[in-house]
Amino acid sequence: MVALRDRDILFIGIDGGGSKCRASIVDADNRLLGTGVSGPANPLHGYAQTIDSIVRSAALALADANLPPETLGELVAGVGLAGVNMPRLYNEMASWAHPFKRMYLTTDQHSACLGAHRGDGAVIIAGTGSVGYAWVNGESTLLGGHGFPHGDKGSGAWMGMEGVKYLLMALDGLAEDSRLKSELLKMLESSTANEVFEKIGGKSSSHYARLAVPVIECAEAGDPVAVAIVRDGAAYISDLADKLLELKPPRLSMIGGLAPRLRQWLAPHVVERLAEPLDAPEIGCVYFAQQCLVEEGHGAETSAEKSETSALFG
Amino acid sequence: MVALRDRDILFIGIDGGGSKCRASIVDADNRLLGTGVSGPANPLHGYAQTIDSIVRSAALALADANLPPETLGELVAGVGLAGVNMPRLYNEMASWAHPFKRMYLTTDQHSACLGAHRGDGAVIIAGTGSVGYAWVNGESTLLGGHGFPHGDKGSGAWMGMEGVKYLLMALDGLAEDSRLKSELLKMLESSTANEVFEKIGGKSSSHYARLAVPVIECAEAGDPVAVAIVRDGAAYISDLADKLLELKPPRLSMIGGLAPRLRQWLAPHVVERLAEPLDAPEIGCVYFAQQCLVEEGHGAETSAEKSETSALFG
C-alpha cells in the first residue's frame, strides 16, 4: 500500500464491531505475524468493553506472533470502529490513554473499504446491519446504515424483523401459512404469539439477525413469503449499490456475514460489478495506519516498493 | 347493564394506559358523579407509577364528585389495564393491597369493549398501538397488538416508523422526494439523516406515534408516499376487522386516537359495519365491576331495571 522508511516498525490492525474484535499484527513488509479475536468492541454499546476487547485482541495477536506482551507499546495501531462517525464517540475513543506506540482511529466502514480494495473503492456491508460506503478521490460517502429497526434494510436484523412481523400475523390468521412460519416457530421454540413475543420482544438487533438464517434458507427453498422478504431487502441493497456506482469507484465489494447468501438475490448488473475483497477489514486498519504515518512524513521517497507490498495479502 | 340489590353502592371505573389514567365514579343507577385524569398507568412500564396513577385518578374523581377522600374505601372498583393479559402483570396487580372496598381487574381491551357495546361486541383500538378484541358469548378473542416495532401495524407508532424509514431513504437519495419528506423534517427540526437519527433513534413508540400526524395529513392531501403507507396500514386494520366479524359480534366499533382519521381509509364493507361506541372505556370498567358483583351473588332477582340502567350512558 505504502512504503515506510522504518523497516523495524510493527503494525497492528484492529477491527471492532458489535459482536467481535479482530486484530492482526504485520511487519513493515505487511507479512502477517499473528492474529487474535476477542469480544464486542462497539463504543456505542459501551466504552469500557470496547477498550477491553481492543487490548485483549491485541494481547492474543502478540501471543500468536510469539512476541512478548510488552511489545504492545511498540505497535503502531490502526483501529476501525463502528459508531465513531458520531463525533461524541470518536472523541471519546481518540482521548483514550491507549497502550500502543501510536493509534490511528477511523470508522469500520473506511477500514473495511481500504482492506477490500487497497485504495479507492466502494463496499456494501451486509451482516447484522447494512450500509454502503465509498472512498473515491479522497472523499468518503456513507449511505444507509441508520440502525435497527428504522434503517438497515436488507440486513440480517431487518430480515429477522420482517420474518417475526409475518409470523405474528400468520399466528393471528391474518397471513397465509408457509414453510417460513414453521421454521421460525421451530427456531424460537414457540407455538403461540405470546411465546414468540416472550422470546424476541424488545431484543437487540443481533437476536433478530439470528432469524435471518431461516428466512434466507426458506427463500432459497422457494417459499413465497420468504422470497418476498428477501427480494424486498435485496432490491434496497441493489439500489444502494447503484448509488455507490454513480461515484465511479474502481471496485465494488460486498462483505459481511450475509453477503454470500444475499449475492444471488441482487440485480444482475450489480452482481456483475462485485469484486472479491482483497484483504480483511483488520488489514484495512493496517493500511489506514500506514497512510497516516506517511502523511505525517514517515513514508519512503520512492514508490518502487508499492506494487510489491500491495500484493502481499491477495 | 346489571341490577344490584344494594342501592347505596358506589362504583369507580378506572381505565389505565400508556399515557393517561381516567376514572369515573357512578352510583348504583349508573349516574355519573365525578371524573379524574392522571398520568400513565401501564404495569409493563412500572408497578409503582401504575398504582400511583390509579390512586391519583380516583382521588381526583372523588373531589370532582364532592365526596370526602375517605369514601375511597367504600368504592367498588373496576380497573382495566394494558398488559394484564400477561399472567405475571395480572398477578402483580391483583395482589396489590388496594385502597378500595373491592377491586375487579381486567384488560383494557375487555373494558373498552364492554364500554363500547354494554355487552357482546368487538373493538379495534387504533392509537399509539393497534389491536383487535372481541367478547362474544362469554369468550374473548385478542388479535394483533403484539407491540412496537414488530407488531401493531396500522397504529400511530407504526405509521411514524414507516415515515422515518422512508425519510432516511429519501435523505440518502434512495427514495423519491415528497411533501411527506419536508413535513417530517419540519416536525423533527432536522435536515440530515444524522439529525433525524439523533431525534428519533431508539425512542419509544409514543415518540414515533407523534409522527403519524404528518403521515396521515400528507396522505389526506394526496401525497403518494404517505398514501401508500396509510393504505398499507389501513388494509391490515380492515383484515383485523374481517377476522373479528367472523366471530359474529352484534356490534363493531373502532376507538383510539387514530380512529377518526383512519376510518376513511378502511375497506367500505368494514366502514359500513362500524358503530359508535356507546360509553367510554372507564364506564366499561364500571360494567365489568358490576358483572363481577352479580356473579358473586350481589345482583337483583328481577331484570326489570336492566333496560333502564343500560340506557343511562347513551
Question: What key phrases describe this protein's structure?
Answer:
homodimer; 314 residues; alpha/beta; Nucleotidyltransferase, domain 5; 5-stranded mixed beta sheet; 4-stranded mixed beta sheet; 18% strand; disordered C terminus
Descriptive overview:
- Two copies of one chain form a homodimer.
- In chain A, 44% of the residues lie in helices and 18% in strands.
- The first copy, chain A, is an alpha/beta fold.
- Chain A has two domains: 10-118 and 278-310, ATPase, nucleotide binding domain (Nucleotidyltransferase, domain 5, 2-Layer Sandwich); 156-273, ATPase, nucleotide binding domain (Nucleotidyltransferase, domain 5), CATH 3.30.420.40.
- In chain A, the strands form two sheets. Chain A has a five-stranded mixed sheet.
- In chain A, helix 2 (87-94) links the parallel strand 4 and strand 5 (102-107).
- In chain A, helix 3 crosses helix 12 and helix 4 runs antiparallel to helix 9.
- At the A-B interface, helix 4, helix 6 and helix 9 of A face helix 4, helix 6 and helix 9 of B.
Distance between the termini of chain A: 12 Å
Helix content of chain A: 40-55%
Structure classification of chain A: alpha/beta
Q: Tell me what portion of residues of chain A adopts beta-strand conformation.
A: 15-25%
What does the radius of gyration of chain A come to? Answer: 21 Å
**Main beta sheet of chain A:** 5 strands, mixed
Q: CATH first level of the largest domain in chain A: which class?
A: Alpha Beta
CATH architecture classification name of the largest domain in chain A = 2-Layer Sandwich
In DSSP terms (H or I, runs of 4 or more residues), the helix count of chain A works out at: 13
Could you tell me the mean pLDDT of chain A? Answer: 91
Order of helices and strands of chain A: EEEHEHEHEEEHHHHHHEHHHH
Low-confidence stretches of chain A: 301-314
CATH superfamily of the largest domain in chain A: ATPase, nucleotide binding domain
Number of strands of chain A: 9
Task: Characterize the overall form of chain A.
Answer: globular
What's the number of structural domains of chain A?
2
